[in-house]
Amino acid sequence: MTFRENVSLAGHSNYKIGGPARYFCEPNNTEEVIEVVKWARSKRLPIFILGGGTNILFSEKGFAGLVLKPNLRGLLRAGTTLQSGAGVSMAELLDFAAGNDLEGLEWAGGLPGTLGGAIRGNAGCFGGEIKDRVTEVTSLDISGRTSRVVTRENPACRFEYRNSIFKRRDGKEIILGAKFALRPGDKEAIRKAVEEKIRYRRERHPMDYPNIGSMFKNVPFNNVPTARRKELAHIVKMDPFPVVPTAYLIAQAELRGVSCGGAMISPKHPNFIVNVLNAEPAHVRALVALAKKEVKKKFSVALEEEVIIF
pTM value? Predict the structure, then answer.
């Protein structure tokens, strides 16, 4: 276990943007995570928990504390139950499930990042969400003087649309791993379903530029003002409940291709802000503010960020 100093966070973000972390550490098991937290507390350092860096915009200032990136691996199968460490990537998780003839996670094909991040934000797409198959989540509560391991069954995780108890208790818990209840399936059919989702993403998302996925959550149709529902009803989709795609709202606000410095609202998928030319964090933040302002003005709808803006 090694503590590194002045580590560029741009190298740990899909955006390739961000200043330095004062300290950076990647513990490999629960005991090491506990020791790292104890060390940071002894020095009164703030702690930031980093997963795959696929949904975070770091600031130019970086982080004047400890960035803790749990490298918690391990994949196990027991019948139709799959157990995974929080540091396992979603791609690895899906590959393991398919290799063991277990279906139920195919909707996540192409989903970036680690399992820990997916659980924190209850990641979802194509009508599925992490909460649909999670049976329990183990985490480390670091809010008290001493850390303690907590295991919660699904209802206690309080999953909601792109939310969970772990996100609400931001900075107070570190997700360690989870168990999933899957179903027996055919290996080739599972892989085909996963590849279809990956292909869809490649065709419709701007994967040729650094990005951190959808910048904003889709808008629950119930949150749309009554006076605007009729004009937006035709675009509503299930995700997994009725929502208005934010990409549509941004496009209708005529923001496709609008840029600021090296950042641009993607013409291909307007809910992505891409790093086209060495963008700075301020460039991205400016486009986030612009999208929120223009969509609010045109549709009376308030956009909510899906990503972390640090």
Answer: 0.92
